[in-house]
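Input chain follows. Return structure tokens only.
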Amino acid sequence: MSEQKGGVSYQSVDSSYFEKRGLRRYAGVASLWALGVGAVISGHFSGWNFGLGAAGWGGMLIATVLIAIMYLGLTFSIAEMSPALPHTGAAYSFSRATMGPWGGFITGLCENVEYVITPAVVVFFISSYLGSIFGTPEAFQPVYWIFCYVIFVGLNVVGVELSFKVTLVVTLAALACLLAFWVSAIPNMDFSRWALNIGVGLDGKPVELPEGGGSWLPFGIMGALAAMPFAVWLFLAIEQLPLAAEESMDPKRDMPKGIILGMCTLIVSAFMILLLNSSVANGAFALSTSGEPLLDGFKAIYGDGIAKLLALVAVIGLIASFHTIIYAQGRQIYSLSRAGYFPRPLSITHGTRKTPYAAMIAGAAVALAVMLAIWFGAENSATLIGGTLLNMAVFGAMISYIMQAASFILLRRRFPGIPRPYRSPFGIPGAVLTIGLALVTIWFQLADPVYRAGVIGVAIWFAVGIAYFAVIGRHKLVLSPEEEFAMSGGTAEYKTDDAIVPVKAEA
């Protein structure tokens, strides 16, 4: 039996459906903080620095400030929405409640691109480091990819308790590495000599100023705006925190605390790494093309003699993000599958460990398939994996942010009476600012030929996903907690033990 609503069909399921898709509560504020910070922290080890070549140090500073403002608007909006709608669906559930099934699905599809592709990019960087450490040939890199996915998907499948414990440990270790660098760099920094050593050549490209002392904005304000997509890597994936809502001990209390504390931590770390990494020997010009900026910073301070040990230090930060985004990937696929948007078998959880193993394995398989297809099917495959896939993740994320900020605005207007344990101090203006800055970031992505290849990849992903939903998925929807809330107009809640079952709220 099915119920027709807005061009989609809801099919009835018995209680065993949700019993096979149960999650287990474990996470407190510390675990949520670690989940958010750990997902992002690899961006402080590498990736952000490419913006220096587009903008110079001062331009990168402006870009980082603007992107930090965008993420503050986003995270405070999410901090309000997530305890009001404490569902694993997160971004999809916010848009589903305010924009209907199609809006929810498209938002979920955008986030799906981000959470499937981002760990693929991170594991590529991990394999590059490991190849350097162990002296293996470039052709061996796919072996590292498969090995890392097997190990960290396995850790996430074993149980939510272990997953969060590993997340906390590797996140603290990554922050300890950054702190060690900051302490080491401060007595060795020379800001004017190294951070301001980028000038503009006759061809309009960056050139090195041997004595430093260059302009803060060698490429002007447009250069600063062009660096915004690179600054995104200092904060990308902090928004994954609400995916842990159904595994949080008290999401209405802990979720806002976890995401706000995580954002504060990342802001401090982002500006410290931008200042100090650029202010030691070799400086901003060398960093602008470096694949290992933190490692280069350590080398500038301590020399090349301990390069392999320092490379292991850098791998810790990459592992932190890889492990935590695999967690998010699994929950994101699980939530869309449980509601019927993706094939339902993907939401089945382990009988005793209550982890969405099918979703995590499927996400890893898709990511590996894309990586291997590029690796064996294209010239300069390393450049494509490090560039095209990274840009796909950023583009998908920006669209998702626009949809989530719009959902915040609509939720305030259409559901004014739902309980809001936390309210964003920035309100609707903060969400509008998030949308505006995300649109500017997309504009400069489209202006860069490298980013356009990623946009084409996202377009293909969307075409496949939308075609599946239009033909099959929209006829197989289920009243999961996210759907129950949206269908009831905000009057339904749910309770959880080990299994999640929708129930009506008390009057």
